[in-house]
C-alpha cells in the first residue's frame, strides 16, 4: 500500500491535445472543465490496483489495470476468440488466463496457447467482458459488444405482376421461399397457411387474403384495389408461422404515353464553352414518326463535379436557363440548340409534346457537360503489381462509338506525379512500367481530352506504407470462382513482424499468425511493410467471406477487413417467342428454357408479361431474385481491444425515453398520359409453371388491344434452391387503328359532335369508315395521311344507344370499335322516398319521369321501418 500527497495547483488539466479544434462546431464540448485534472501515479508493477483519492471531506475510488499485454478479441454468436499480444512490439504472449463474463458471472474460462490465442464457446450476450491475467501478473479488461447482423431463417420472396397499379386494378401476388441454414445451404419451406394483409399509403388495412404456401410451388393470391384507392406506396404483409414478411407496390392515377420522346445529340460528349446541339425524335410504339407535334422545351442547369466515378452536384437546385416552343417535322424530329455551359454542368431538359390527340407526353432528359458515362472498359490481370514490373492494361469498347482513345495517363496519388503516353492506332492494350510503389489512377482520353475509361491500380515495393494507424488490403480480383487462389496485398504503416489473420463470416472460420502461417494460406514477405497472402478459394466461401488483418503496436491497435466475393451458381432462364411483332388479338407462343451451367434442369417458374411503359413510370421494386436469396453476407464477427476499455460506469438512464419520430417522404410518380382502347397493363400472368427434364415449358396468351412494347419477366427456382431470372421483349403493332375522341355521357338536349381518331402507318391510302347507330348505317370514304387523323361522324345522335365503327381497306376489316352512349336528364337529382303498401297481384309504384337508381326495401315490423328511415333521421333529425 502506498500513500502520497499531490498539489492540485500543479496538476495538468484534462484538455484536448495542442492543435485539436473542431472548425464550425456549435458547442465547446472539448473545452477543458475546471477541476478535471491528471494525477500521475508513477510507474507501477503489473497488477490490479485500487486507488482512493481524498480532497477535504470528499473521497472517490477507482481501479487501475496495469499490464504489458493487450487482449484483442473477436466475438461472434456462439464463440469468442482472444489473442493476447505485447503492448509495445505486438508479439504473441502465451499463458494468459482469460475469464469471459457477462458482468453477473463467469460464462467460461481458459488459457491462451503458444500463439497467444484462445477460443471459448458460449452464447454471446449483447455486452460481455474479458478479464485477463498475463504471465507477469498484469491484469487487463476488454468490453465486447455483439449483435446479429446476419440471421439465417426462412426467406420469402414476395412480388407482384407489376410495380404500379391504378385504383380498381387487380393485383396478382406470388410468394417463393426457402429455409436457409447458412449462406449457401437451404431446404424447402414448411407447407402451411398464411395471411396476406394489404396496407394502403395511409397505413390503413384494406383487406386480408388467405394464401396457402406449398414447399415446392410457393403460394399465390390476388385481390382487387378499391375504386377510391389513395395514391402512394402500398405494403404487403405476409404472416407465416408467427413471422411477418413484407413487400410493396405503388398506386397512381397514371396514363401511359402513347408515343416516346428520344434524345439524339450531335456529339457524344460536350465540353465547356461548346453549344449543345442535337435533335429530339418522337416515335409511336411501332417506330413510326410523330409528325407536326407541338413541342415545348424547358431547360435547367446544375453545376457538377466528379469524385472518383460518382457525380457530385455543386448546387442543390437547378437554375432555369430558357424555354421555347416548336413543331416536329415529317420525320418526327425537332432541332435542339442549347446554350453553352461555362462550367461542367448537368442540363435538365423537360419536353412536353402533343400530337393532336388531346393528350400531352412529358419527359425529362439529362445531358452531362464535360463528363459522361464511360465508353470503354479498362482492365488488367490483377489489381496490384510489383514496382518495376511491366503491367499490361487492356481496353475494349462498351458500345459502338466514333470516339476512340488516343492517349493514356497515370497519376500517382501519393505525390500527384503523372505521366502520359500515346496508344497504338487500332490497338487493344498498352504496357506500363511503374518504378515507384503507390496507388495509381489510370485514364484513357480521346483526341479532345475527354475521359473514356478509368481504373485504379496499386503497386507494391520498398517504401510502401499505408496511412498511420491503418492497414491497406488490395485483392487481385473482384470476383473469384471456386478453385481459384485469391491474392491479397497487405500494406502496414510501419514494419510489422506479427499480426493475426482471420477468415470471418458467422464466426472466425480460420486463423493464423503472420509469423507462422497456417495451412489455409501462404504468406510471402515482399518488403518491411508489405506481405502477399494467397488463399485457395473453396465452395464454402460463397457468396462472400471476410479476410481480416489485426495488429497492435506501441499501445495502439488497428485492423482492416477485405471481402472475398465468390460466384454463386444461378439458373439461366431464357424466354423466346415465335416472332417479335404481333397484332392485337393475335396468339403469342412463348417458350421458356431453364438450365444450369449449360445443362437443362427442371425448375418452378413465374412469368409476367407487362407493358414496358409501366417500368418507365415506376422501375421494378422487387429485387433481383438471385440477390434476394443469395446476397452478399454481412460479417457477424465484432473486433475489440482491452486498450479501448475505460471504466465500468457507462450506464444507461433508467428513465424511459420516447422513440424518435420517423422522417419519410413519399416519392412522386410521373403522371404520363396515354389514350388506350384497352387498359391492360399485364397481358399475361403465370404464377406457377414447371419446366420438364429438358428444361422446357410453354404457354400462350392473346395480345391485348394495345400498341406498345411488352416485357416478359421470368423468375425461377430449382428443387435444390438455385434461382435465376430472365427477360425478353416483343411488340404489338397495327397499320390502322381507331380510338374515340368524344365523351360517352350527355345531357338531354345536347347535340354531340361525334368524332374519332384514326392512326395510320400508311400515307395516302384510301379506306372506308362504316359507322352504325340506332339501326342507321353511314359509310365514309377517306384518304388518310400518316399519323393521327381526326374524322367527324355524320350520325345525328339524340338518344342513348350503341355506336360502332368499322374501318375497311380493300374489302378487309382492319379495325373496329364500339362504345355505349348515354343521355341523362339535365335536372338536379333529388332523392325521394315513398312508402308503398303491397297488396295481392301487381302493385303500381307511380315513379316520376327520369327516375334512376331505384332501390326497394321490404319492412314488416316497426323496427324494420325505423331502420330503413334511420339514414334520413340522422341527416335531418328535426324532421322526426
Automatic annotation (TrEMBL):
Domain Alpha-2-macroglobulin bait region: 471-617
Signal sequence residues: none
Residues in Alpha-2-macroglobulin domain copies: 682-773
GO MF annotations, alphabetized: endopeptidase inhibitor activity
Source organism, top-level taxon: Bacteria
Residues spanning the membrane: none
Family, similarity comment: Belongs to the protease inhibitor I39 (alpha-2-macroglobulin) family. Bacterial alpha-2-macroglobulin subfamily.
PANTHER family: ALPHA-2-MACROGLOBULIN HOMOLOG (PTHR40094), UBIQUITIN DOMAIN-CONTAINING PROTEIN (PTHR40094:SF1)
Protein name: Alpha-2-macroglobulin family protein
Originating organism: Escherichia coli
